[in-house]
Amino acid sequence: MESTVVAVTGARRGQDLVDAFERRGATVIHAPMLSGDHPADDAEIVADTEVILGLRPQWIVATTGIGMRLWLEAAERAGLRGRLEDLMAGTRCIARSAKAEGGLVGAGITPAWVSPKETDATVAAWLASRALPGDAVAVQLHGGHPRAYDGLVDAGLDVVSVMPYRTGPPTDLARARELVDALVAEEVDVLTFTSPGAVRNLVDVAGADADALRAVARTRTAVAAVGPVTAGTCEDVGLPVRMSPVRYRSMDLVREVEAWLARREWERPVEVVMNPGDSSAIVDQTEIPLGKREYLVLATLSRRGGSVCRTEELITQGWGHEVPEDAGTVKHQVARLRRKLEGTSVGIQTVRGVGYRLVNEG
After folding, report:
1. What digits encode the pLDDT tens for the residues 95-138?
2. 170's torsion region: left (phi>0), alpha (psi -120 to 50) or beta?
3. Which contacts qualify for 150-159: CB closer than 8 Å, 24 or more apart?
4. pLDDT tens-place string over residues 155-179
5. 310 in helix, strand or coil?
6. pLDDT at 233 > cutoff 90
7. Which of 69, 177, 225, 320 is deepest in the core (most CB within 10 A)?
8. Which backbone phi and psi does 289 adopt, to 5 degrees?
9. What sign does the CA torsion over 203, 28, 244, 20 have?
């Protein structure tokens, strides 16, 4: 990684990433884009809670342990905790993670299901396959609004939410601004993100330079995201993701960046820009319309930066909990994508017995 400039935006585990990249010889710019999780105002939480109590949803989703704790504490201060716990006890509660499960258990609630993947997309897919049209779903959001739950509305469900805390802006705004300036000046090789909040805050700090930031991410600076939720947020704000590890861990992100840099020396880059707004991809400056599954499969391949993506990962990211009965479904989606990519510089290579990877065929 010598002569490589890497930007780290993480706060809590940011220094660990800085140390790991520096041990590998990189020059690191550390500009935390988060100031931690901040409780929302009681009035806001209580207003959302009253809506949920009045709706009496058939499903309640707990996404984080701290979020459940803050929600219940705010409800208690407003004299609503008893009613809220009674509602939870009388409906079906599901948990996005083990910590969220702990938050429910702390309120005396045993969840009907806990996501083994710990992602919003998996929870939303599980609900979409079980909830009935017209069912109401209350979601305890964590720090922001994951787009995964928007699809439940399309499935005919009534979705309401409560956000007990938000991710705060950078504490050191001058430092954050210096990173934006370095990015716009094309002085950064790799920009890393480990949370959706850091992505949104960077764009907010960029302000009038946001378009220049997006242009740099398409041409000069490679964006690395720790997992699909963070990667999806990057794509939502117009920052294409070049690499993302199989396991959603910080040190795996470091290794993925290291592997990508090594490949870059002898491989021509694959240029695919995902556009979540209308489920399309831009290849060779041409917009290619995609179906829902096609989009998810191509997005997963593009985030792997040219490395092999296992078939199992494509199934997880493309279908969530709705695992297709026919394993050949992935092959069908890949075949459809190949037809749509014909005539472009991008192709999909089969790695026998393992999976697929994007390659430059120009």
Report:
1. 998 999 999 998 899 999 998 877 787 888 889 889 998 999 99
2. beta
3. 151/124, 152/124, 152/127, 152/128, 155/128, 155/131, 157/127, 157/128, 157/131, 157/133, 158/55, 158/57, 158/134
4. 889 999 999 988 788 999 999 999 9
5. strand
6. no
7. 225
8. -65, 140
9. negative
Residue-wise pLDDT tens digits, 55-106: 999 999 999 999 999 999 999 999 999 999 999 999 999 999 899 999 999 8
Residue 115, CA atoms < 13 Å, CB-side half-sphere: 25
Residue holding tokens 């997006």?
A: 214
Residues 6 or more apart whose CB falls under 8 angstroms from that of 49 comprise 71, 74, 75, 78, 80, 84, 162
Does residue 270 sit in helix, strand or coil? Answer: coil
Q: What is the structure's pLDDT at 134?
A: 92
8 Å CB contact between 74 and 46: yes
| Residues in Cβ contact with 139 at an 8 Å cutoff, skipping those fewer than 6 apart | 60, 61, 63, 149, 159, 160, 161, 162
Per the CB < 8 A criterion, the answer to whether 328 and 335 are in contact is: no
The one-letter amino acid at 103: G
* Residues linked to residue 88 through DSSP beta bridges, in sequence order: none
Task: State how far the Cα of 335 lies from the Cα of 346, in Å rounded to an integer.
Answer: 14
For the ranges 17-21, 112-116, 122-126, 147-151, the lowest mean pLDDT is seen at 147-151
Residue 244 — φ and ψ, nearest 5°?
-155, 135
DSSP string for residues in 113-178: EE-SS--HHHHHHHHHTTSPTT-EEEEE--BS--GGGHHHHHTT-EEEEE--EEEPPPS-HHHHHH
Which of 135, 141, 163 has its CA nearest to residue 48? 163
Give, for 319, the enclosing helix (H) or strand (E).
helix 311-319
End-to-end alpha-carbon separation of the chain, Å?
27
Residue 34 to residue 337: CA distance in whole angstroms:
37
Give the pair of three-digit tokens for residue 41: 């105002």
In this prediction, residue 270 has a pLDDT band, given cuts at 50, 70 and 90, of confident
